[in-house]
Amino acid sequence: MSGEDDYESDSDMSVDSRSVSGKTSVLLGYPDEPADESASALDTRIGGLPIWLNPSSPPSASLAKCKKCKSVMALLLQAYAALEDTLYERVIYVYACKKAGCRRHPGSVRAFRGLMRDEDKMRAVADKQKKDEERRKSNAAEAVEKRKQQQADLGNVLFGDGFSDGANPFGDPGASPEPSTSAGARLDEIEQVSESLERTTIGAAQRQDTSIQTPFESWPPAEELESYKSWFLYVEGEYLTNKSDQEVGQRVEILAVTSGGSGNDGPDEWSTLPESSSNVDKVFQNFADIVADNPEQVVRYERKGSPLFYSKTDEVGKLLINRNTGRYDSNLIPRCEVCGSVRVFELQLMPYAIQVLEQGSGIDIFNGMEWGTIIVGTCKNDCAPPTIDKNGVAYQEEWLGVQWEETK
Questions:
Q1: What backbone torsions phi and psi does residue 331 show, to the nearest 5 degrees?
Q2: Under a CB-based contact definition with an 8 Å cutoff, are residues 202 and 384 in contact?
Q3: Which value, in Å, is the radius of gyration of the alpha carbons in the chain?
Q4: Are 45 and 38 in contact (CB under 8 A)?
Q5: 253 HSE (CA, 13 A, CB side)
Q6: Cβ atoms 118, 87 nearer than 8 A
């Protein structure tokens, strides 16, 4: 569900006020239909069991283990997120522990990025590079012949036919002429190098710091893994309407309906929120306002964009919102552990996902998930992990921040 643009507008909007209406640059994921056996690694889904980029190259199970209970967690999201003009497939996985005792603990929700070289694209690039090299050599040979002819013509003019062999009359008699590549040949060579890199360091994994590698851990049998019911997602662009005339209480009520956990009857934890805009946290008000336009969204995707904050006073809000400007600042996301680059916002899970994942599961409102949003930040360079295997597959953990529902 990639929609990456080249702009860098990750701090253009205040986190506590809507400044746009109409179509935005955000892609929204909505539940479509239950996922079945036709699902592949390149489908975007919530719930279910993971599908790896190559069945023979799973990641280490340690990437999906809860850091509190040490158990393998349940898959919340598998998002196909290939980037344009790259030579590899790309998937984001998000996991969360289902145990109530692990809730709100660091490492109880985690995300990692998977890459796999696209052999078809690589062959196409290799073929192009071969043709470019052949053209470069041909251009260079033509340039040498042209220079020889020019030198022969110059010798005839200055000294007559005695120097018609093309030797430089002012140079070393034993030296042979240097080949001169044309500007076009040099440009071809630059393009060849540029295209071989393709905006990623996936071909330079050996240069990565291998000190962060951890021992591989095998996965339990599939029947032993915790899981939610799986749903395919369909993706549409976000469209916002002007809600300036809508009461805050109405917007909050819509959000309460879409984040109702299992959907079972129970106390409405949102019912005590005041309806006066002066009494509602402005960041949460903005969150409720934007979600109300598309209440069944389960994923928001905007690589290099801005997350929609649930709060600015929790740990995630305090980490990512610049105190001086009051705006989101991607430079505040912890840097990539592999290449040292800054990370950028890529996607976030939204409250309606809780209702979809937990419906029919028998989980009551007291024991279900209780987050407001899950924000995932990924390496801006989309660097290659140091563990690319023989199948061209690698996985790397990325930064994830959970904005939990506020407790009374």
A1: -65, -15
A2: yes
A3: 28
A4: no
A5: 7
A6: yes
In whole angstroms, give the CA distance from residue 304 to residue 362: 38
| Class of residue 120 by CB neighbours under 10 A (exposed 0-12, middle 13-18, buried 19+) | exposed
Going by the DSSP 8-state scheme, the letter that residue 375 receives in this structure is E
Structure tokens at 205: 């994994």
Structure tokens at 138: 């041909």
Are the CB atoms for 99 and 69 separated by under 8 Å? Answer: yes
User: CB–CB of 403/372 below 8 Å?
Assistant: yes
Q: What phi and psi, each to the nearest 5 degrees, are found at residue 299?
A: -140, 140
Cα distance between residue 193 and residue 215, in whole Å = 34
Strand partners, 239: 23
Instruction: Say if residues 85 and 118 touch (Cβ distance below 8 Å).
Output: no
pTM of the model: 0.74
CA distance readout (Å), 144 to 141, 147, 167, 252, 302? 5, 5, 13, 75, 51
Q: Name the residue among 91, 93, 92, 88 with its Cα closest to residue 116.
A: 88
Six token digits for residue 137: 């050599």
* Cα 391 from Cα 384, distance rounded (Å): 14
Produce one character per residue of 196-229: b if its CB has 16 or more CB atoms within 10 Å, e if not: eebebbbbebeebeeeeeeeeeebeeeeebbebe
| Residues constituting the chain | 408
Q: Using CA atoms, how far apart are residues 1 and 44, in angstroms rounded to an integer?
A: 7
Q: Is the dihedral of CA 309, 28, 227, 216 positive or negative?
A: negative
pLDDT tens for the chain, residues 1 to 408: 766 544 344 545 577 765 567 899 999 999 999 999 999 999 999 999 999 999 999 999 999 999 999 999 999 999 999 998 888 999 999 999 999 999 999 999 999 999 999 877 666 666 666 677 777 878 887 888 888 777 776 666 555 554 444 444 334 444 444 544 444 544 554 454 445 444 444 444 444 444 456 789 999 999 999 999 999 999 999 999 876 544 545 555 556 555 654 444 433 333 334 444 445 688 999 999 999 999 999 999 999 999 999 999 999 999 999 999 999 999 999 999 999 999 999 999 999 999 999 997 777 666 789 999 999 999 999 998 888 899 999 999 999 999 999 876
